[in-house]
Amino acid sequence: MIGLVVACGMVVGLGSVLVVRGALTAPVRLSDALAALDRRSVVIEAPPAGLEGFGERAQRRLKLPLSAAQQRLLFMQGRSVGDFFIEKLVWTVAGALLPLFWSMGQLILGNPPGLLPLGLGLALAGAGYFVADIRLRAGAEQERRAATDGIHTFFDLVVLERLANSSAAQATANAAAISDAPLFRRITAGLERARMEQTQPWDELHRIADEWNVPELADFADVMRLEEQGAALAEVLQARVKELRDAHLAHQRTAAQEATEGMALWMTLPALILGITFVTPALLTLVNS
């Protein structure tokens, strides 16, 4: 009898696993191909496997919200949708389990934990779900600075390619293919799309500049467009690249100066507190007298 019960339990467990597996199986994906035809910023890649694949399938099946801004930030950071939702799952589970560990400790000590850990676990699980969103937004500024630094390196590489007598489009493609950074991969994908459609790549560079919030790339595309049309603008390109780099360095110096001035406040706080400790006894004496 016990063996029959165990066998029935195993069958039920196996059936549950198969149901969950079937529900999370990735269907045929036409969205990437349609997005490519629509000229959106989607790079067609193989479906991720492992935990990333599980996170991506769970997001599609459960229809978890993912905004366009979050997708852009994920692409800028070189992360997948599955990785983002696996991070959400980890933080959610961690928030839910923390009160459970505390309850186990209380039970070991002989103290009934009550219903407080249950409510606290639900609250921490809800808060943990949004930790990944906060971390994603927190890294946006850092990624933007990295993209700006990378685009100036890209300009220098294009200038070197042009000095080697490469055409404007070829110099841009060769410079973008040197690195596998997210911005360089996006430029490479845009140039390849323009080549396959037999169109000029400069409109695609304008689109990338809007997506990544890098206006310097739009200026670069305008100069390269004029140069490919026959204007001898090699020296103009070098001068424009130098102007963009000088402007970037000036912005960096301004940001560093602001950070230094912000630190001055915290440097004066210890001296202020020390002065208050010297003055407080005298003030208390005057008040009590």
Descriptive key words:
289 residues; mainly alpha; flat; single chain
Task: Walk me through this protein's architecture.
By secondary structure, the protein is an all-alpha fold. Among the domains are: 62-138, no CATH class; 142-247. The chain contains 13 helices and no strands. The protein has helices spanning 2-23, 31-37, 50-62, 68-76, 81-108, 116-129, 131-138, 140-163, 168-176, 182-196, 202-212, 215-228, 234-288. Helix 5 runs antiparallel to helix 6, helix 8 (140-163) crosses helix 9 (168-176) and helix 10 (182-196) runs antiparallel to helix 11. The termini are far apart.
Write the layout of secondary structure elements.
Layout lengths: L1 H22 L7 H7 L12 H13 L5 H9 L4 H28 L7 H14 L1 H8 L1 H24 L4 H9 L5 H15 L5 H11 L2 H14 L5 H55 L1
Helix pairs in contact: 3-5, 5-6, 8-9, 8-13, 9-10, 10-11, 11-12, 12-13
DSSP strand count:
0
| Helical coverage, percent range | over 70%
Uncertain segments = 39-45
What's the mean pLDDT score?
Answer: 75
Shape call: flat
The radius of gyration is 29 Å
Instruction: Give the CA-CA distance, first to last residue.
Output: 90 Å
Task: Give a brief rundown of this model.
The chain is an all-alpha fold and 289 residues long. It is built from 13 helices and no strands. It has helices spanning 2-23, 31-37, 50-62, 68-76, 81-108, 116-129, 131-138, 140-163, 168-176, 182-196, 202-212, 215-228, 234-288.
